[in-house]
Write a structure and sequence with these properties.
2 helices, twelve-stranded antiparallel beta barrel, 204 residues, globular, Porin, LOR_sf, mainly beta, 41% strand
Length: 204
């Protein structure tokens, strides 16, 4: 894995929306209910405990999709796994849409079998997918992953485990994500949701 290097980005990196970009690092706490089978399996808060995002699961005929919402439950993006794909592949659409015109980005594993996490991310306009726009590397099992800009060593966000008495007693998996300045933090959260789903398929 490339050695991380933190280079502050002066231009906004907006994927979902520029209002999710702030000029300073932002720390988000992600709490995942380990046995959740319905809505609310993910809750994302800031360092003061204020709810920033929620994740809802919707299961339809032979299909599952996840909905990233704001604290009030308003849809931000819809995350849909693509069936009949050799790699684990997800498509992310604006709002509650599944219209190709609302596609924001696609994420897929770099190989069918992985010992370590490797996820390549392609923005909607990158139709050739020859070079990724973002990549994720690390160990999901250890909740230690780094998100890079393109196929480079420039870090845009990273996650790390956070243990607490609450997480152990209440069956919750809690970890932190640091999103660097001017990076779309709603986009970063959506990547974490995808990573969780892909690795849940493997029993992680």
């Amino acid at each position: 894995m490339a050695q991380p290097s933190y280079i502050p980005l002066t231009n906004l990196v907006s994927v979902i929306g520029p209002h999710y970009c702030v000029p300073y690092p932002i720390d988000l706490a992600i709490t995942r209910k380990l046995l959740a089978l319905t809505d609310g399996n993910f809750v994302v808060t800031d360092v003061n405990g204020n709810i920033m995002f929620k994740v809802k699961v919707r299961i339809t005929f032979l299909r599952e999709r996840q909905l990233l919402t704001d604290a009030a439950g308003n849809p931000i993006v819809t995350l849909r796994p693509k069936i009949m794909s050799a790699h684990s592949r997800w498509q992310v659409f604006r709002g509650n849409s599944k219209d190709p015109a609302d596609l924001l980005f696609t994420a897929k594993t770099s190989s069918i079998f992985q010992l370590r996490t490797r996820l390549n991310v392609y923005l909607a306009h990158n139709t050739t997918e020859e070079v990724c726009d973002f990549k994720v590397e690390g160990s999901w099992l250890e909740r230690s992953c780094v998100i890079y800009a393109g196929d480079s060593s420039t870090v845009v966000a990273q996650m790390h485990q956070r243990y607490s008495a609450e997480s152990i007693l209440l069956g919750k998996d809690k970890f932190m994500v640091t999103v660097y300045p001017n990076i779309d933090y709603a986009f970063i959260v959506s990547l974490i949701v995808i990573l969780d789903d892909i690795n849940s398929e493997d029993g992680s």
